Amino acid sequence: MKTKHMESELLYIEEHLSCQNYMTAIETGFKFIEFTEDAEFGEDHTNKNYLLFFLKGDITISYNQFRDKSFQTGDMVLIPRSSLFKGVAPKDSKLLLMFFDIPENNCDKLLLQSLSNICENMEYLFEPIRIRYPLTPFLEVLIHCIRNGMNCLHLHTLMQQELFFLLRGFYEKKDIATLFYPIIGKSIDFKDFIMNNYTKVNNIEKLISLSNLGRSYFFARFNEVFGMTAKQWMLKQRNQLILKKLTKPGVCIKDVIEELGFESQGYFGRYCKQHFGCTPKQLIKRCQANNETN
After folding, report:
1. Starting from the edge strand earliest in sequence, which strands make up the sheet with 85-89, in order?
2. What's the pTM?
3. What topology is assigned to 13-183 in CATH?
């Protein structure tokens, strides 16, 4: 027996809007965006993980070292916390975003932790996986609720849990690992703590203090989760941040020095020589050239 799809509106809207759990701003949950004209969007430093569902139109995303990657209708991809990303969306395109820290359900955390071995043998290329049944009707229902004003914490929490439930039940582990690769680790909570706090401190000792863990345990856990020492990882993140800053058109060396907390222009010059093999001006030219060719 065939059923006819019926449009329906939210009943008792005033009762819903007056609920103490109604959210006027989405900090953790879902947001549906319809672009009525060509538009750019993004953040220099994301404070959440963003799961992007491309519902209509070809949208271009630049994320950290990945430049101008095109995603099509039916793709989904993750932008991890503490990223620099920019999107370019054409008129009439549609996008759904899920903002989250880590999965709220312990089963979902354990799932992502269990995929760390798969990730160890993968090369991360910022590739999407496809939206398919049963996610398709799930997203239709979710968007229908949002568009009709059902925007309470209950909806967003339940829908996030259902999303992970459907992924866990109907997607292969390799696909889930591909999608969530940047946040997967042997300890999801510890990795999320590091990603959320490493930009707030100037050295590893302050990061250890924030963690409330013993030094030996912190270093052992860090090595286990990230596969390198804390010092090596922090240096890598600092160098990547420098490259991100210098890629921006019209960048000023003085501004970069101030933003990243270098003591002087001379010290920054020596740092670039040591870690990049060139002067800051030469590094800017290299970054700008790479940006134009990507």
Report:
1. 39-43, 85-89, 59-63, 66-71
2. 0.80
3. Jelly Rolls (2.60.120)
